[in-house]
Amino acid sequence: MSSILQELESQISGLKTTTTKSNVGIVREIGDGVARIEGLSDVMLNELIEFPGGLYGLALNLEEGEVGCILLGDEKGVVEGVEVKTTGRLLSVPVGKGLLGRVVDTLGAPVDGKGPITASAIYPVEKVAPGIIKRKSVSQPVQTGIMAIDAMIPVGRGQRELIIGDRATGKTTIAIDTIINQARINKANEGKAGFRPLYSIYVGIGQKNSNIARSLAVLEAAGALPYTIIVSAPASDTATNQYLAPFSGAAMGEWFMDNGMDALIVYDDLSKHAVAYRQVSLLLKRPSGREAYPGDVFYLHSRLLERSARVDEKNGNGSVTALPIIETQAGDVSAYIPTNVISITDGQIYLETDLFYQGIRPAVSVGLSVSRVGSAAQIKAVKQVAGKIKGDLAQFRELAAFAQFGSDLDAKTKSILDRGARIVELFKQVQYNPLATEIMVTTLWSMQNGFMDDVAVDKIKDFQLKLQDYFSTRKDTILAKIRDKGAIDDDITADLKAALAEFKTSYR
Amino acid sequence: MKLDKEARKLTKGLFQVSLTNGRLDEKKVSAVVKKVITAKPHSFVGILKEYQRLVRLEVAKYHAVIESATPLDKKTGDQLLANLQAKYGKDLTTEFKVSPELLGGLRIKIGSDVFDSSVRERLARLENQLTHA
Lengths: 508, 133
Fold this sequence. Notes:
The structure holds two protein chains of two kinds. By secondary structure, chain A is α/β, with parallel strands linked by helices. In chain A, 39% of the residues lie in helices and 19% in strands. Chain A has helices spanning 2-14, 147-152, 171-188, 209-221, 239-258, 270-283, 297-305, 336-344, 353-357, 380-386, 389-403, 411-427, 437-448, 460-474, 476-485, 490-506; strands spanning 20-31, 34-39, 47-50, 56-63, 66-71, 83-90, 92-95, 103-104, 121-124, 141-142, 155-156, 162-165, 198-205, 228-233, 262-268, 319-327, 347-351, 370-371. An eight-stranded mixed beta sheet of chain A has the order 8-14-13-15-16-12-17-18, with helices on both faces. A six-stranded antiparallel β-barrel of chain A has the order 1-2-5-4-3-6. Chain B is α+β, with helices and mostly antiparallel strands. Helices cover 56% and strands 19% of the residues of chain B. In chain B, a hairpin with a 2-residue loop joins strand 1 (19-20) and strand 2. The longest helix of chain B is centred in the middle third of the chain and has 18 residues, at 44-61. In chain B, 14% of the residues are buried. The chains are: A alpha/beta, B alpha+beta. Chain A binds chain B through residues 11-12, 14-15, 18-25, 38-42, 65, 85, and chain B through 53-54, 57, 105, 109, 111-117, 121-122, 125-126, 129-130, 133.
């Protein structure tokens, strides 16, 4: 009891310095989540402004004699003529491991009903990205658990890899699969020396509440939630909150980066983010440009994605990997926002509707998908088995178009076609079922070394599943060897050969 | 009424010529208003309204509103005025107001700066500290 009294006394004595100086303004116009304020002569850009009733706003437009301000909440109760004041603070969110397993809104307040959050620190939402000196090149892999991506379009820690495609082509699924795989790897390696867990942050911007709830349920069912933070700014949220949500997510990721940990952020999706920012800008009467987007919509995304980085030992020794998502309209990648984000990121995974309906899922288009930095992060074993696959598949696509016209094919063309058809089959993968790297390596190795050539194409999937089963139940010593060595040497090659010969005698 | 770019520029120019040494000149202001009313340029009502706004903001910069819960005695008032004029210049105009909702203490507003030592403000701060501690 006495400690409470002491605290009260100290609080009260702190109030003895009685006069406070503040800078105030008068609301002249309010509506649509935007207020115009007269006065506020000392206001700074991006400063928090306090409205009566606990509402806060963000000063975005500093004009002559007037300040344009966006509101971080419901404007009900604020009327013309009320007095507002500057706070001298920037918009900040709680960060830290206490947020893992939680669903929060843009301001970091919990929305999952699991009680208050214990934050390790408070980080400003807008922060300048780490500079050149602080950075380190990307060299550690992010295992997505999706064979088509890990083999052909590898992603490294600190990379920005765009997931782009039409509606309903499986963009979110790839992101969720990746998050599930991280949780699986984190769980399997918990407490091992030198292991770097990868924590995930899923930022839902302008999504339907039902979609976010579904993703949440999937993550919960897969046991991935304890390693994941969900930042939710659904379609019913204000445009301001949708505009700020990815920046909040980035701030939460930066805490992991600054404290020697790795984080993965999914921005789902940046098209809706651009639309929210367009709304805010138009309401603030900023001049509009192409497709009515404001002139700084490129900078909006570039400054957000630049915050994904891998920093060196002196500056935190962590990384933030970003998987932004963009939804295209009728496959048009040359629209304004898609081209912007494609040029900012270090590569893209392009998903095609046609492939999706042909049953090739994930519907990754090999020709249009690239990863500009990830191959440096690929582990050796994957490089050994997947090095040529992208080329093989591209050749297959080209020849398949020709082969449609005639039936007379020389032996070489036929072998390329057969190989290609088998790769396509292997890369089909059901959703929410990420594969371990060593399983991928053994599967691709058996394909590359001709063990699948005598299996009919429509039986490939069955063969693959049984082979994976066989390896994980009966030959897990080989899997462990691949996992530990990270490369396929002569010893492992001999083991694999023997194992496959044994498997093929029993397979029917 | 929304002013176009031209009119806004003109208003700004009118405001600039109403200043002498960076301070508002009453004679010039009334001359400008008379001139605008007689010349009747395009959308002159809007121009005058915008001009009025600029003048109002400029006047407020050098006008102190001193609020207190109970009327101040003459001596305190004079002393306050002298202190404020020493800080903000001799031509500071003042206005004394009685606002019982302050509960006690003083609140002085000059332009958009507010010096608040009222009991209401202190209670609000205490509440804030206790709820967000």
